[in-house]
Amino acid sequence: ELQSLQNLFVDSNNPISFLEFLEASAKGLSIDVIPNSPLKLPQDPWTSMTFNIHYKGSYRSAMRFLETLDNAPYLLEARETSIASGREISEGAIADFSFVVKVYTK
Predict the structure, then answer these.
(1) What per-residue string of b and e applies to 11-47 under the rule 16 or more CB within 10 Å gives b?
(2) Measured between alpha carbons, how far is 58 from 55 in angstroms, rounded to an integer?
(3) What are the strands, taking DSSP E only, across 1-106?
(4) Strand 76-84 to 48-58 pairing
(5) pLDDT per position as a tens digit, 14-35
(6) I need a labelling partner for 44 at 20 to 30 A (CA). Which of 23, 75, 77, 85 fits?
């Protein structure tokens, strides 16, 4: 049981398994992922690491990706989400999506 709790945390020295999870969750979407250095913030119980994610595509695909993240086997939080589009956003519209994923690390 302790091992399954440990699996909720991303290895800050080698976050490859988390990056592979992001890639698999994107299911063929072209996403750019930029990892940031781990930090211990005063308000957090554990050290965390953020990943900046950028995706250009349909609103529906982006929401499906975020839903997959919401059900991830990691202790994470999607933050600072932004959507930019040259026209009104609808389900089929193409837009630029950016968000930050915060994960707790071991």
Answers:
(1) ebeebeebeebbeebbeebebebebeebeeeeeeeee
(2) 9
(3) 31-35, 48-58, 76-84, 94-104
(4) unpaired
(5) 999 999 999 898 887 889 999 9
(6) 23
